[in-house]
Design brief:
By secondary structure, the chain is mainly alpha-helical. It has two domains: 39 residues; 58 residues.
């Protein structure tokens, strides 16, 4: 049993040693300079920085991005199904009903997101 996991254990050890060695080399070789106020300011192509250093984004942006990724990835599961559908429909209609159930679960999630106002930008 241990013999099966030996390659994984070796890979974890090698990755750990690489990470530690990279940190040590950067500490030993890296430049150490005093921090000044000029060094800590944001650099904007030679212009004097104006406003906050980092602009804040609305949480709506992240919610819409997550929903897009979620529904986009779910569509990826439909492509292989569509390709093999004609071959497998001859064996029975279980493939059709399983995809219909999958789409129904997707629709429940979509309706829930709409009811919660995740896609309402008027607020």
């Amino acid at each position: 049993m241990l013999r099966d996991y030996l390659p994984l254990l070796l890979q974890i050890i090698v990755v750990g040693l690489f990470a530690v060695s990279a940190l040590l080399v950067s500490i030993l070789v890296g430049k150490r300079g005093r921090r000044t106020r000029a060094k800590d300011t944001a650099y904007e192509c030679g212009m004097i920085p104006q406003g906050e250093r980092q602009q804040r984004f609305s949480v709506k942006f992240y919610v819409v991005a997550m929903l897009f990724i979620l529904f986009d990835l779910e569509i990826v599961f439909m492509y292989p199904w569509a390709i093999v559908y004609r071959d497998l429909i001859k064996q029975g209609s279980a493939i059709f009903w399983s995809m219909l159930g999958f789409i129904a679960i997707l629709m429940v999630g979509y309706v829930y997101a709409l009811k919660k106002g995740a896609l309402d930008f008027r607020k």
